[in-house]
Design goal:
Blueprint: E1 4-11, H1 15-26, E2 31-35, H2 42-47, H3 49-68, H4 83-107, E3 111-114, E4 116-123, E5 126-132, E6 138-148, E7 152-154, E8 167-168, H5 170-173, E9 182-186, H6 190-201, E10 205-210, H7 221-233, E11 237-240, E12 244-250, E13 253-258, E14 261-266, E15 268-271, E16 275-277, H8 284-287, E17 310-312, H9 323-339, E18 351-353, E19 358-363, H10 366-371, E20 376-382, H11 387-392, E21 398-404, E22 410-417, H12 420-432, H13 437-442, H14 451-461
Helix pairs in contact: 1-9, 3-4, 3-6
The structure holds flavin-adenine dinucleotide.
């Protein structure tokens, strides 16, 4: 039987792959997409962004019901936890979205191949991909172009023996069958803090072990320091500057070994020290595709690899490992292929930590500006001086806007506070449009809204904040 031929074959159906496939179909290409998992949507939809946000929402509501509502005059005598129902709700949110991607594939006539894709060589001017199904049967697919969107996998840590249960990754931490008594999180980054927050709110003692002397590496240092203080107040325990040398199960529990310190005993360990590009058995060598020293596929400005006609986007290439960055790249890459023009504004990619309060940043941090020798002005404004934040009872945090000292162009923003992840969108748009802090300050913001804090921070850049 002759192999199917597509204009474009995408390998991986995460935010990069499925969005790239849909955009290519919209542009008139005949598209196929290979995905090894039964559900479409990748890490993000299956075991990443979406399930973690579902649990963050549920656990926050539980935490509020446990006493946080009393200040509103709402008395709940006893809030109970049905973890199985909470998990089922999370699973339903996930399946409705992964099913939605399947629906979008149908609507856009994207052919779906279920199995592991591997580049096996050339057939004339076509690339050849073998799709190996779970039952070991192999389907050959041919395509004029390939888009590699195979994402990332959890980075291991030497000495930490993952057992897929007590010592696990974020995937296990999204589905613990009971609330741990004591959860040790290795790594004070976004994933560790989000999932640590979930389990702390549900009643676990949570200890975060972090190698560096701060949390949220790469995030504006002032904002990260505020976050650390607030998380400690919420009961999370932090041990900074700790080098974990091993973790193993012992009886019903686990032991985490730390250099020069007493081992930590706990009943569950979450390893969250980062993620690495996923290129296992992809056939990169056969195609002559190179990776950098961190294993990321190397691409040019149009996302093309060293092999003509093979492109790569998302977590598998350099840049922040974020779903929206992956989607932007996928759209730009496919538009480059078809129209010759595409665009990703890397200076305007927001990053959000969905803890309570949220932490959101876009553009450059103060540290980055100082390092680059840029002169800048800074405006900050606290949520405690905002009417809506007071009405919500969520007054922790602030907005910080950084603008070029000479031109006033907005260079960066860091927010810690209620709905920071939504508020950052305004500043991302401002950066993308090359706006000044004066532009934000002069735009009318509805009252009373949290967005007024962004306006006040923009006013503060030139020392004109009105409500401080
Ligand atoms: C717990 C957690 C929470 C997160 N929260 C957020 C968040 O709130 N916001 C955010 O922006 N990002 C978040 N992320 C990161 C986000 O999930 C990733 O940046 C995003 O999924 C990357 O998209 P991608 O398409 O490049 O890769 P992936 O989503 O990893 O998708 C790659 C897909 O390729 C498939 N695949 C791999 N190799 C093959 C092969 N050879 N053949 C066939 N299929 C293959 C995989 O099965 C997978 O489905 C989170 C991640 C985790 C783990």
């Amino acid at each position: 039987m002759s192999a199917t031929v597509h204009d474009l074959l995408v390998i991986g159906a995460g935010p990069a792959g499925y969005v790239g496939a849909i955009r290519a179909a919209q542009l008139g290409l005949s598209v196929g997409c290979v995905e090894v998992e039964a559900a479409l949507g990748g890490t993000c939809l299956r075991v990443g962004c979406i399930p973690s946000k579902a649990l963050l929402e549920s656990s926050e509501l539980y935490h509020e019901a446990q006493g946080g509502l009393a200040k509103h005059g709402i008395v709940i005598s006893q809030a109970g936890l049905d973890l199985a129902v909470m998990m089922k709700r999370k699973d339903t949110v996930v399946s409705s979205l992964t099913g939605g991607v399947a629906g979008l594939f149908k609507k856009n006539k994207v052919a779906r191949y279920h199995g592991h894709g591997q580049i096996t060589g050339r057939d004339g001017d076509l690339w050849q991909v073998a799709v190996r199904a779970q039952d070991a049967s192999v389907t050959q697919v041919l395509a004029h172009k390939l888009l590699l969107a195979t994402g990332s996998v959890v980075s291991p840590l030497r000495g930490v023996e993952l057992d897929g249960d007590r010592i696990g990754t974020s995937t296990e931490a999204l589905s613990y069958p009971e609330v741990p008594q004591h959860l040790v999180v290795i790594g004070g980054g976004v994933i560790g803090l989000e999932l640590g927050s979930v389990w702390a709110r549900l009643g676990a003692k949570v200890t975060v072990l972090e190698y560096t002397d701060r949390i949220l590496a790469g995030t504006d240092a002032e904002v990260a320091a505020i976050a650390l203080k607030l998380f400690k107040k919420q009961g999370l325990e932090f041990r900074l500057g700790v080098r974990v040398t091993g973790a193993r199960t012992q009886g019903d529990g686990c032991v985490v070994e730390c250099e020069g310190q007493e081992p930590v005993l706990c009943d569950r360990v979450l390893l969250a020290v980062g993620r690495s590009p996923n290129t296992a058995d992809l056939g990169l060598e056969q195609a002559g595709i190179t990776t950098d020293k961190r294993g990321r596929i190397e691409v040019d400005g149009h996302f093309e690899t060293g092999a003509k006609g093979i492109f790569a986007v998302g977590d598998v290439i350099a840049g922040p490992m974020l779903a929206h960055k992956a989607e932007e790249e996928a759209v730009a890459c496919v538009e480059f292929m078809v129209t010759g023009y595409g665009h990703v504004d890397y200076a305007a990619i927001p990053s959000v930590v969905y803890t309570h309060p949220e932490v959101a940043t876009v553009g450059a941090s103060e540290e980055e500006l100082r390092e680059a020798g840029r002169t800048y002005r800074k405006g900050t404004f606290p949520f405690v001086a905002n009417g809506r934040a007071k009405a919500l009872g969520q007054t922790d945090g602030m907005v910080k806007i950084l603008a070029d000292a000479e031109t006033d162009r907005v260079l960066g923003c860091a927010i810690i506070g209620p709905r920071a992840g939504d508020l950052i969108a305004e500043v991302a748009v401002a950066i993308a449009f090359g706006a000044s802090s004066e532009d934000i300050a002069r735009a009318c913001h509805a009252h009373p809204t949290l967005a007024e804090v962004v306006k006040e921070a923009a006013l503060a850049v030139s020392g004109r904040a009105l409500h401080m």
